């Protein structure tokens, strides 16, 4: 260490004009690394001095400055002590008097001010600041500021204590202004939670809100963010759509709270802009035409998950009330990343991975199938025309034919996933910025089934002076999606096993399905008023029996379906603070997306179809058929808000007022023609050359708007008693003016018991809070924007004037009024009660518990009006009620074993769903199958027959007919041994769909959960994540269709090998037979209902972060590099025998088999 | 600011429609257009079982055995559809009537408003008439229902449906023109209305044994002018001779751009169907395995030897029906399943024979009645040059019941295989109780393997469960 004596020789420069002495000394101290000591009693350090010295020895510098001020100095060890000389050097302290550690000055009482912040630079209020070794202390205010007076600012140490944070001891070292940063031990209480129109610290949130952060989001490989929530949050159920890159996951918050016409999806809000998005990609509910033109691509995939900082889910009505009439299904707030203080940060992340379908069906080969068919024919005596296929004496016998695998070629082996992101962010001088560019290409489980996304995002926030702030946020996305697969695995699996796929002699290399010849169409006229086909089928013969399947593989090559989508999303705000703490903010947001879908059906595709269509419909020269759908969603949001916060002593108040207007417009035009003039992918969609008679155009437009006024008050007393109240008033264009406006209140309160004096000194309870909330929100999402109006349909046709040889007459226009315009229609009302407890123990264990009870009243639905009312279109009414209740438990433990940091977490949500009211208590839907709705039952429960057992002998058959089915009505069915018998529930001697159906299960899980752990040690990290559900049933439609015992040509799963025969009676699989002899073994019954519970190892990730020397030796400029490998859907434990137990809600509507994905990723920053 | 919420659809709404005469005419056309649901292929769910199978003239095996053996269940889809479409038509009629009644000054063309009102009342009356014959007790609804508080209309009783039909048809007869211009052929006329009015009155008289109704029926029939039997019997079933001089009302089958028989007429697009369907008579491929309808053996035997109508009605070997689908009669549309050929709903021969029945039953001159029967027989005879059968009935006959049995025979063979005639006849004759028709011991001559066990309550079909389950004020007919 350099001694002070040596330092006196060091050359320094000082240049000050009229500057106080202490600043000059400080400058010298900084240049020399030597401590100066002086007593402020004797030396006036505020005296102004002027000095201009360049590269002079310290000894000379000191002399020139101090001598005129009559200040002397002495060097003691490595310190320099100043003293008042008065020309009397004896006044100087003598070395002998000095203690080894320093010089003792007369203590001076000094006021020290400071701020306490957390690791995100957010102020922390309520931190206790104590002078070490005394009982003197103060508490930080709402802005984290404190003021404390100390006796000796040089030798005082301050102790900062706050629950959930590491205790800090900070030596003042003479400073009069301090900035202290506390490190959170557990972030449970201090993480910032976005709560809608604002944010709060987690420990201050009084209602039910779940969050997931960027780190968890990055672990999901899906191109869309919803799956990042799966299993990570209580109360949020996410069902993944198999291995499709663009099908939409189903997201339900705290159960299914609407059915019928109301849309059950939550409201998504991105950076304060509520999306009004038409639920593209999922939505059969939305009206078949509309969902058809919107197509299958999930529009939420147009937000790059890599840009998302956090996802907050507002679950109870008190939290969601800020979104009033749209919050009934819960609200999901997406907050994107922003620049953080510090120097520019550049981050690169790349992910590359491969996916493979996990399971396929085990199917019969041709020989096994032939045997099955022969047995079915023999057992039933029913013969079809195509049964020569199974007749060994016939030329068309297939029994010797090879077996073709229709599944493997459909599946995309090692489907590639690529994701690249580059982000630049930072903040300086009141400006923060964030720029990102991303590219993602995800291939699906099927060939020609992929998504490619280019995304850009940028935001800039600027503080102009102290009272004005402004910012813009923009994201632009271009996304291409290839949807060119035509039939799913399920369809492929059922192909006759002897039907070939390839044929080298065919022009396309594929085996045709049909032998067709054409003859001239006698009605053809090239000059007629409407287009007609020059040729029509003379003969069309399916080549492989009645169940000949379309050759999907050829269709994929000949036809195409592509989407290109563009999204522009942005908002800008301007904020002023005219009175301290009163912020007024005006913002404007726009979300515009355009989706162009192009479909192409090549001329030759009829050759490969199961049901060939005349390819000449477009005229003599057509090369194929085209369809172009161009749809646009435009969404504009205007928002004006005022916030005010103030602390009076221990009272903390936050006020919010907001007024907003949002208008959504949707339009599409659909152009199609059976006459494309070219099959060149570049030119086939050019319309100019198409005969106008061959063009068909359809346009559609609609819009809706909502106006909302919101007030919120948050109050807490000393961080101990909290109460929040929200009131929102919404007006919606979707309802009649007299029923348009509604008010949605929410109240929540919290008592932080741990802040009471009797608990404050508890050694292990760091936090204990009890919360309660009540509120009402609404759901206005229905497919029909004008349901209260009676529209005129221009569509039924009729003709008059036929006679005298004219059989047709001429078509006249007509109109019909088909609606039941219900002016009383209004939103669904959701009333939620929530009681919760939060705990933090030992600074390591967090626990939270919630009980929720949500009653949805007046569900928007089509009510089964009596048939005699006679409206063609069903009436939309607010009639039914449904209740969702359950508990949510979440726990996490965060600690170290030696230097291994680890974190174990788990959560579980239970849900009991019950329909409590329907129209006149009549079932809304009740009958054989799923989707039943009736009072006292869960939504969409299954109702079906109950298998009583297997008839094993003629005697069993006779007994069943006499003892059970005594009535003659339905006993004529030709039951045979090997058939199921069904229970006659009402003992009326008939098995009927009116009275013998029983409850078979429900598709919504009674509970779902997630758990796992994370650990890191010296740069290595590992995370394991499980997820699952239970108390759920599935109707296995795969089994219903593929466990085919009729031998009609449609292939079967190998389970049928276990079928009943007189020699094999110990089985649950019925005999091979045709027709409906036994009243159909294949009827909707409990035989097909299976336990849908599963436990899935959803994700495992192993990472290594290059550190220290290794990093420095590897690269000159990266600050961090993390490499990782990750596996998704590693294994699933389930009793469900179909391919995917998660398909519960979709029920195969868009079936893509689930995939297992392995990825390699790299994150680097500098 | 709140005006921002007043958004309206990009299509016309009721509030801004009905501003011109044409708008009303289109609305009236929409009521006619509802008829297509009754006659269309309906995705292989055609309603012909209701119209054809319950009597003893047409039979089938297999699928529609309920209509052969009277083993209906309230969930029967075809019955439910028949009921549903009937009330949809009534709803459309009530809606247009409401609009017509509140219209002020839109109509310019003289009489057009009366005509339009008459057309709508005619269609509604005809529908109530059919409902009475089939379901008997379903609700009478003559006001448009716009309010959830009024959706549960009560069951009707007795002849209430028939009474409403009579009232509607009476009004319609007074409002409608006797004929329309060539381009409007097929619209209801005063003849249509008087014909149906007379028919409804005869029906009510048959079951209520009410002399005044017979007298009123005869009066209504007498108002029919300018119609006559066509010379060629098969013109009543030919696409080339629609809306002919014998025709009082037909369903006007037509064809859209592509006649997509899988889409209903109400489908929002140009490809839907409003053609008719006859495939069940000629075993067309579009049956997809559903059984063909054929004549019963009983019907075949009922024809007098040498009656030319026998071979014009059926192929005597296969008993396949020839009406509508015989040689050259039918023309299928470009869909291959639909047909241009109009189903004849009311023809003059029916009027003549109903009038004869009214005369006989109300104590009129037997000779007058026999003369009417002979008009029909003479035309039949003329179908074959030199034919002697069916010979004229003896005009001197004094045995009223003998004359009545001639009448009943004539109706059987003249209208065999035509819609809603045979079952309606035997049903009302059975309900009369003294016309020698006892359905409980009746020979329905079915080819279904299931035995007919006719019970008294089967004169009323079950009210569909779709109504029963949603309307507490409607009672199920007994026996279901």
Tally of alpha and pi helices of chain A:
13
Radius of gyration of chain B: 22 Å
Largest sheet of chain B: 2 strands, antiparallel
Structural class of chain A: mainly beta
Nearest-integer average pLDDT of chain A: 87
Give helix % range of chain B. 40-55%
- Estimated share of beta-strand residues of chain A: 35-45%
Largest sheet of chain A: 22 strands, antiparallel, barrel
For the record, the CATH architecture of chain B stands as Alpha Horseshoe
Give a verbal description of the structure.
The complex is a heterodimer of chains A (1166) and B (480). Chain A contains 13 helices and 55 strands. The two termini of chain A are 34 Å apart. Residues 95-107 and 281-285 of chain A have low confidence and may be disordered. Chain B is mainly α and 480 residues long. Chain B has 17 helices and six strands. The mean pLDDT of chain B is 93. Chain B is globular. In chain B, the strands form three sheets. Chain B has a two-stranded antiparallel ribbon. In chain B, strands 2-6 form a two-stranded antiparallel ribbon.
Using brief descriptors, characterize the structure shown.
heterodimer; A: 1166 residues; Phage tail protein beta-alpha-beta fold; Immunoglobulin-like; 22-stranded antiparallel β-barrel; five-stranded mixed sheet; 13 helices; 55 strands; 8% helix; elongated; B: 480 residues; mainly alpha; Serine Threonine Protein Phosphatase 5, Tetratricopeptide repeat; two-stranded antiparallel ribbon; two-stranded antiparallel sheet; 6 strands; 42% helix; 3% strand
Provide the fold topology.
The complex is a heterodimer of chains A (about 1150) and B (about 475).
Chain A: H1 4-7, E1 11-20, H2 21-32, E2 35-37, E3 48-57, H3 58-66, E4 71-76, E5 79-84, E6 110-117, E7 128-131, E8 137-139, E9 145-150, E10 157-161, E11 168-171, E12 177-181, E13 192-194, E14 199-201, E15 209-213, H4 214-217, E16 236-239, E17 250-253, E18 267-270, E19 273-274, H5 288-294, E20 308-314, H6 317-320, E21 331-336, E22 342-357, H7 366-380, E23 415-428, E24 431-443, E25 449-464, E26 468-483, H8 489-493, E27 514-520, E28 535-542, H9 552-558, E29 560-579, E30 582-602, E31 624-648, E32 651-676, E33 695-717, E34 721-732, E35 741-752, H10 757-760, E36 765-779, E37 797-800, E38 810-813, E39 828-841, E40 845-863, E41 875-897, E42 900-910, E43 912-917, E44 929-932, E45 941-944, E46 947-950, H11 954-964, E47 980-982, E48 998-1001, E49 1007-1017, E50 1020-1030, E51 1033-1035, H12 1037-1042, E52 1089-1091, E53 1094-1106, H13 1108-1114, E54 1120-1134, E55 1155-1165
Parallel strand pairs in A: 2-5, 6-12, 18-21
Antiparallel strand pairs in A: 1-3, 4-5, 6-9, 7-8, 7-10, 10-11, 13-14, 15-20, 16-17, 18-19, 20-21, 22-23, 22-55, 23-24, 24-25, 25-26, 26-29, 27-28, 29-30, 30-31, 31-32, 32-33, 33-34, 34-35, 35-36, 36-39, 37-38, 39-40, 40-41, 41-42, 41-43, 42-49, 44-45, 45-48, 46-47, 49-50, 50-53, 51-52, 53-54, 54-55
Chain B: H1 21-33, H2 36-39, H3 48-53, E1 58-59, H4 65-69, H5 77-102, H6 112-134, H7 160-175, H8 190-208, H9 211-222, E2 247-250, E3 276-277, H10 279-282, E4 294-295, H11 297-302, H12 309-313, E5 338-339, E6 344-347, H13 348-361, H14 366-381, H15 400-415, H16 422-432, H17 465-468
Antiparallel strand pairs in B: 1-4, 2-6, 3-5
Helix pairs in contact in B: 1-5, 1-6, 5-6, 6-7, 6-8, 7-8, 8-9, 8-13, 8-16, 9-13, 13-14, 13-15, 14-15
